[in-house]
Amino acid sequence: MIRAATKSQCTTTQATRVHHAASQQLSSSQHSMQERCASTIVRQDNQQLRPTIDHSMPVFHTSWLLSFARRSVASAVRTYATAKPAASEVSSILEQRISGASAGGDVQETGRVLTIGDGIARVYGLRNVMAEEMVEFSSGVRGMCLNLEADNVGVSIFGSDRLIREGDTVKRTGQIVDVPVGPNMLGRVVDALGNPIDGKGPIEAAERRRASLKAPGILPRQSVNQPMQTGIKPIDAMVPIGRGQRELIIGDRQTGKTAVAIDTILNQKRWNDGQDESKKLYCVYVAVGQKRSTVAQLVKVLEENDAMKYTIIVAATASEAAPLQYLAPFSGCAIGEWFRDNGKHALIIYDDLSKQAVAYRQMSLLLRRPPGREAYPGDVFYLHSRLLERAAKMNDTHGGGSLTALPVIETQGGDVSAFIPTNVISITDGQVYLESELFFKGIRPAINVGLSVSRVGSAAQSKLYKSVSGSLKLSLAQYRELAAFAQFGSDLDASTRATLNRGVRLVELLKQPQFVPMATEIQIPIIYAGVNGLVDEIPADRIVEWENSFREKLSTEDALLSEISKGVPNEELFSKMKTLITEHVKGFLA
């Protein structure tokens, strides 16, 4: 009898708890739902009580306990339930609630931070996450998934990881990193994610494009056939660059690599001020790992020369996280590709890819990827090749646009045989090698003619310029060779002295101050004068002075400049140039 009573009391207590929990849940919903659920629970509890009776007990004790249990349950829920709706109605409501719930949906789309440190988070979960997908932490910080492993995901964080803790929730965004593109980007300074950082308000871009896209295939491409004028005499004469080419600018620190790039941007003003869209060249400058003050100075120079209106600057400075420095060149390339794919012409400058490789090495080592030569990961070659292969000259079927790339690489102590320099040299279509020794001698731009080469640009050079500058590189090579021997003795024959004298004047003619790009029609007569010995009588220390005065004289000869700009060589044109130069030399020496 005691055992039966205990069973009945336990069952009654359990039923009372069930009804109390149900009543608390129902108190937050509508009153009608409270009545229906409570009355249903009463009926269910009456059914549950029946099997717990011990039939070995006397009948009057059994009936008394059953009556007591029913009265206890009824009194416990009387205040919460008064109505008694149909069981089918309650059943349909429960089915609707159950069908609307998804137990496994959030498990696949969210994860938990296992470890965090050095800008890398290990996240458990995120089963369906994509490579290079953006994820968001509970603190609002974003990151990019780089390592997709069996039991966790390696996330590289954009920014500081101070606000992220172990156990924090991470959710997918479903987006691969993309940036805004289009003409509204012109004149703006943005970060690696395309957010404006110039204080000029938001960018209203109608289109966005993924940062890491596949390079165009073979069929949509066309061979380089249009010149891309840099306005720098030694480059346009001996290392010509075509639209759609990839020309490397390589050299030690403080040798003028960025100066070459900026002069190239400034030189495009003469075409961007015109109305011919086919001649315009829009510029994208990607600053990777530079000081903020350097980027600010660059913006100031471009604004002072009215070049910012056709330029976009993508900046990932030295103070920003390694993933942003890794991503900035890809974001800038996506912005430039919009112009290429819309039948326009664009130039992109990566300044510089050495720092991008260092940022990628840092991320890879922190993600526990195996290191290779110079501790760089094994796919660092692919990092640069997939970026630079996106520069191309498209055929007319695909709009005829082009994207020209000028990557910059910094060498250490003039060592061009290091890992990253050799990689990028093998990827690009030529290189402009800047030498610190020439720079300190005052030969600026400090271009080493012997090591600089353009593999495809000569096809884009005008016939007139090619005929004028054809022997320039050979003359300079002979001069350098003889100058080395001339140091050991003074007894030289007449032809050797003539070669040395002409070489000195050629070197002087190729000097050019910074931020003073020259048009092709101005360069050609100057190079013609040096190669043909028309300025041999002028003292070497006065060559620069003569050049400045000759440029002023040349700017008044509109008919001659117009004929030179056509780019067609003929004897009459050469005769006119020779007469003009000879007369000016006589007047200068008089």
Q: Roughly how many Å is the radius of gyration?
A: 38 Å
Number of helices: 21
The profile of the biggest β sheet is:
8 strands, mixed
Low-confidence stretches: 1-19, 21-60
- The pLDDT mean sits at 86
User: Which structural category do the helix and sheet elements fall into?
Assistant: alpha/beta
Note the gap between the termini: 138 Å
Q: Remind me, CATH topology of the largest domain?
A: Rossmann fold
| Spatial order of strands in the largest sheet | 8-12-11-13-14-10-15-16
What is the general shape? Answer: elongated
CATH class category name of the largest domain: Alpha Beta
| Strand content bin | 15-25%
Number of beta strands = 16
CATH superfamily of the largest domain: P-loop containing nucleotide triphosphate hydrolases
Structural domain tally: 3
CATH architecture of the largest domain: 3-Layer(aba) Sandwich
Classify the helix fraction into a percent range. 40-55%
